[in-house]
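Entry for the shared binder. Reason: the reviewer on the internal report wants the predicted structure included alongside the sequence.
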Amino acid sequence: MWCVRDALHGSVCFSYDFGSRSKATAHRLLLGYQGNVQVDGYNVYDDFEKIQGITLYGCWAHARRKFVEAFDEDNQKATQGLVYINKLYHIESVADDMKLTADQRKDKRKTEAYPIICEFEKWLGDTWLKVLPGSRMGKAIQYNYTLLPRLARYVNEGRINIDNNLIENAIRPLAIGRKNYLFCGNDDSAVRAAIIYSLISSCKAAGVDPREWMTDILRKLPVYKESKMDIKELLPRNWKNRTDSSN
């Protein structure tokens, strides 16, 4: 199951492509799109580095997770790596508390976060010589060092989050559901599940009660269909705006 989130308006779209995790599916999801894309380290996204009009950003939460996974194996080095990343998150926390504008956040990132990233890069290079490549620590360093240009890019744009945890939050119900019902049963069921997850997640992102929304739109859909009205008005965020204005 793939998940795409509109970072500006919060709409969420789940997509099932017959179990495919291929580059072709990623390209189909972003066909014709130009702008910023924030992703984890899955290698199918590497192609987007070469596409004109797309700027790719990494996720520091995934980078940090690699050191957490290596913690039991090499406590000292994993802690050192985590300290660097935690400093970056602290800068974001301070910026949030100060309610900085996007431009102010960018300036703060360039003056405070970028020097830390440069120190982190040197530490990664030095520490790589002291670990086994196949160890969890070695994999953590390799992951971070390989993706560092993509990870560091957020300092150039104050509107970009330091991580893509908004997607992580959106897919959490899917992960919980999978533990309970194990599988969808067949491809058609997975497609329908993707639709339902998309609608409910978009409701949550818009601050809409999914039950209230669905109860209302199920009554309205036949009217919209009969009158050939634009059903986009019933999408969670649009529905909320119309409901708020009518109240």
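Summary line for the report: The chain has three domains: 2-57+165-192, 60-155, 210-246.
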